[in-house]
Amino acid sequence: MEVKTPKESLTILTDLVLPGETNYLDNLFGGELLARMDRACSIAARRHSSRIVVTASVNHVAFNKSIPVGSVVTLEAKVSRAFKSSMEIYVDVWIEDRQSGLKTKVNEGIYTFVAVDETGKPVDVPQIKPETELEKQRFDGALRRKQLSLVIAGKMKPNDANELKALFKY
Ligand SMILES: CC(C)(COP(=O)(O)OP(=O)(O)OC[C@H]1O[C@@H](n2cnc3c(N)ncnc32)[C@H](O)[C@@H]1OP(=O)(O)O)[C@@H](O)C(=O)NCCC(=O)NCCS
């Protein structure tokens, strides 16, 4: 099967934060950010696989910094690793300074999507070859994160998660 690169799935979504999307502190509501992340990751997974894709799990989201109303928010999502039918997608969230235009990274998320056929049955996806240092780092950690997600979901026995267990050996 064809091998693709992460940049082929790069998806960039830029949008404003409007007053109806904020919490009591006038910062972007967490659920709204999750929805934007899910959308960006879904497009990246679809670009990689050219298939129908569904969210299988949200593996990690860090709400490191709040995003004030009026901010211009940019999400950048890319497939970091492809397995058989599943793909890990990393999404980085940035806001930009109104005057200087300088971007600051505020949050990030890691999602798993699965490619499926018209009946919802998982189908194989192209493999991926990372190019940049960051893409290689994310590719290397993806198998451990997949194992952790499966263990938490009760779909893998902890004892079978060899790469994950290796992290705790010294
Ligand atoms: C995601 C879904 C297709 C997986 O179906 P399944 O019957 O568990 O299929 P499998 O066991 O063959 O798993 C398919 C792949 O998903 C991966 N997977 C399943 N659950 C996972 C989880 N919690 N974390 C990480 N990967 C997961 C499996 O490891 C497998 O990966 P691989 O093919 O790359 O090795 C199915 O659970 C589904 O359709 N869920 C609903 C999706 C949806 O509606 N999302 C929107 C949420 S509202």
Q: What are the key terms here?
A:
3 helices; 7 strands; alpha+beta; Thiol Ester Dehydrase, Chain A; 170 residues; globular; 34% strand; binds coenzyme A; five-stranded antiparallel sheet
Q: Regions with pLDDT < 50 over 5+ consecutive residues?
A: none
Per CATH, the superfamily is: Hotdog Thioesterase
Continuous helix count: 3
Q: Tell the overall outline.
A: globular
How large is the radius of gyration? 17 Å
Distance N to C terminus: 37 Å
CATH topology: Thiol Ester Dehydrase, Chain A
How many DSSP E strands? 7
Task: List cofactors, ions and other ligands.
Answer: coenzyme A
Based on helices, strands and strand pairing, what is the structural class? alpha+beta
Series of H and E elements: EEHEEEEEHH
The CATH C-level class name: Alpha Beta
Number of domains: 1
Query: Can you give the mean pLDDT?
Result: 96
Give the strand order, joined by hyphens, for the main sheet. Answer: 2-4-5-6-3
Which second-level CATH architecture applies?
Answer: Roll
Helix content: 25-40%
Report strand %.
25-35%
| Main β sheet profile | 5 strands, antiparallel
